[in-house]
Amino acid sequence: MQAMIEQLQHMKLTGLLEAWREQQALPTYHDLSFDERLALMVEREYIRRQNQRMQRRLRQARLPVHATLDAVDFDVPRGLKKIQFLEFAQGHWLQENLSLIFLGPTGVGKSFLAAVLAHHLCKQGHTVRYIKTADLLLELKLTKADGSYPKLRKQLAAYDLLVLDEWLRDPLSLYEAREILDVLDERFRKASCLFATQIPVEQWHPQIQDPTLADAILDRIVHDAMKVSLRGESMRKLTSKLIPQKENDNPALSTKQQENKTDAKPKNETSAKSKAKGLQETTDD
């Protein structure tokens, strides 16, 4: 028996081994047939391996926040359609090698929504890498110095989804535009990208120093990308603890301040439901 245990450990079948030990300890399993008990042990091992792979994908994705679809507040008026977002979460667009563009001003939740979507797609079995555009350019530059540049380029081409946050926040130099073009070209109609940006698409071209490279970069994005335009107030503002809900709900106000605020309606009042949900949407955007 000890030999079997050691063999299972050597093969790293720890889920199967745990299930076997559980069956040995609990009499309720003794009434099951051999096939039924074996099926339960195999199922335990399968679930363990699936969970391990999912955790590995989540670590690999390097998400700024690990949040689920339930954390998204669809009641906040910012142009986000629940049906559309949940459809994106199904991942059909990845199978068609399409891309997404999240557009909108600071604070509306572009980065958070991208992270939620990436997290859900990781759990579905897709490989994802989330990175700010400036960090990607720096990483490409550093890997050229240490000799790991080809490895990084191969990894970037292999992800099912590459999320580029703060896309074109800063203008791209000639060198940077070439690097970005190479990354996008290797993924063009082979894998998907998600761009989160404050810059409207019609203003992308001037953000790229070289007009020819600008044409090439945009040509590899805009024709196969679905656009989601977000609007509204900053989620950070709406979820700030410093914004009073009602005049008597803020204990930090002095008695005199409370008196002065009598009959005054707060300007930044939001629904309790929006604040309860939106509190989770405070990541960088």
UniProtKB/TrEMBL annotation:
SUPFAM superfamilies: P-loop containing nucleoside triphosphate hydrolases
CDD domains: AAA (cd00009)
Keyword Nucleotide-binding annotated: yes
Stretches with biased composition (Basic and acidic residues): 258-272
One GO-annotated biological process of the protein: DNA replication
Keyword set, alphabetical order: ATP-binding, Nucleotide-binding, Plasmid
Annotated segments matching region Disordered: 242-285
Domain annotation AAA+ ATPase: ranges: 96-227
Keyword Signal belongs to the record: no
GO molecular function, one term: ATP binding
Cross-referenced Pfam families: IstB_IS21 (PF01695)
Matching InterPro entries: AAA+_ATPase, DNAC/IstB-like, IstB, IstB_ATP-bd, P-loop_NTPase
NCBIfam families named among the record's database cross-references: IS21_help_AAA
Family indicated by similarity: Belongs to the IS21/IS1162 putative ATP-binding protein family.
Protein name: Transposase-associated ATP-binding protein, putative
